[in-house]
Amino acid sequence: MKVEFLKGLGLTDEQIQNIQAESGREIQKYKEENIDLKAEVNNTKELLDNANKEIDSYKSMDIEAIKKAAEDYKTKYETAENEHKAQLAEIQLNNKLEKYVDGLKLKNDIYKKAVISRIKEKELKFDGDTLLGGEELVKGFKEQYADAFCDDKPKPSFSDSTPGTNNGSSNDDTLRAAMGLGPKK
Q1: Measured between alpha carbons, how far is residue 124 from residues 60, 82, 109, 165 in Å?
Q2: Exposed e or buried b per residue across 67-99, where buried means at least 16 C-beta atoms within 10 angstroms of its C-beta
Q3: Is pLDDT at 168 greater than 80 in this prediction?
Q4: Distance between CA 5 and CA 16 in Å, rounded?
Q5: At residue 55, what are phi and psi to the nearest 5 degrees?
Q6: What is the full DSSP assignment across 52-77?
Q7: What's 124's DSSP letter?
Q8: C-alpha dihedral (99, 104, 109, 111), degrees to nearest 10
Q9: Dihedral of CA 16/113/33/131: which sign?
Q10: Taking the alpha carbons of 171, 172, 178, 182 in that order, is the dihedral positive or negative?
Q11: Helix pair 109-121, 63-102: axis angle to 10 deg
Q12: 12-36 pLDDT per residue, tens
């Protein structure tokens, strides 16, 4: 959703941030599911194509050659399936790492990649959505690169007048009074 649209509905900045954060989480969840499903579909298509080619090659074979080819194909299938599971696990791990690192509020992608690299280096594992040993790693990273994290303090906002000093009169009247002049007629 666009910020302008939400502001037009009269929502506060905090409400808008909450709406956008929730929307972002939902979008990320569906992106992750989409990536998983695409990988599974591609793997299934590849396996089906290989099976069809293998079946076509059986038409001209003798029985013993078919048995040997079937065993070879079974081995190839199991190997491909294991590779697919490993790839899918890697994709899921990368998605969880991205989600975890996004929650750290790092200033840029270079720092994000550095944290992900350290997590993979130390071979830290997830327990659900919790990265085991993640807090210690982030604490060490914060000590080494304190400027890598976004400042959580709200930025001051400035306005063109001090509240309560206008007393219902216009700015011209206030300025004229400060200069020792009477109100404008």
Answers
A1: 52, 22, 20, 58
A2: eeeeeebeeeeeeeeeebeeeeeeeeeebbbee
A3: no
A4: 10
A5: -60, -45
A6: HHHHHHHTT--HHHHHHHHHHHHHHH
A7: -
A8: -130
A9: negative
A10: negative
A11: 120
A12: 889 888 888 888 888 888 888 898 8
Inter-residue contact 68 to 58 (CB < 8 Å): no
Q: With 0-12 CB in 10 A as exposed, 13-18 as middle and 19+ as buried, what is 149?
A: middle
Residue with tokens 């200069």: 179
Structure token pair of residue 54: 């293998």
Residue closest to 97 by CA, chosen among 117, 79, 70: 117
Helical H segments across the chain, by residue range: 3-8, 13-58, 63-102, 109-121, 134-144, 171-178
Select from 18, 31, 46 the least CA-distant residue to 98: 31
Residue pair 138/120 in contact (Cβ under 8 Å)? The answer is no
167 has pLDDT over 70? no
CA atoms within 13 A on the CB side of 159: 5
Residue 130: helix, strand or coil by DSSP? strand
The Cα 117–Cα 78 span in angstroms is 31
Structure tokens at 96: 């969880």
Question: In the prediction, which pLDDT does 87 show?
Answer: 92
